[in-house]
Amino acid sequence: MKPITRWLVFVGALLVLALVLVFLIRTAPKNPVALIRVVDAAGKPIVGAVVQPEGLRTKSGPYRSGWYGWSTGKNKVPNPPVATDADGYARVPYPKYVFELIETGTLCLKVDHPDFVPQRPERIVAIALPAGAPWQARLDDLWNRIKHNTLLARADPVALQKGATVKIVVRPGTTLPKESRLFAQMSNVATEGTNFWTRPEAGVLVTRSLSAGPHDLRVIQLRADGSCWFSDMSSITAVIGQTNDVVVDFKRGATLRGQLDETVPRPVKNGRVVAHVWPTGSAPAQDPPQWHAWSKVNEDGSFTIGSLPAGDLEVVAMCDGFLSTNGPGKFGMRYPQQHLLGTNDLTVTIGMEQTACLEVQVNDNQGRPLKDARLVSWPNVRYGEWSATVLMSDCYNMAEILAGPPYRWDQDVSDFEAVTDATGFAVLPNMPAIATEFSVMHPQFDLPAVGPAGDQKRREASITLAPGQTNRITVQMELKEQAPITHY
Question: Is there a contact between 451 and 457 (Cβ–Cβ < 8 Å)?
Answer without folding.
Answer: yes
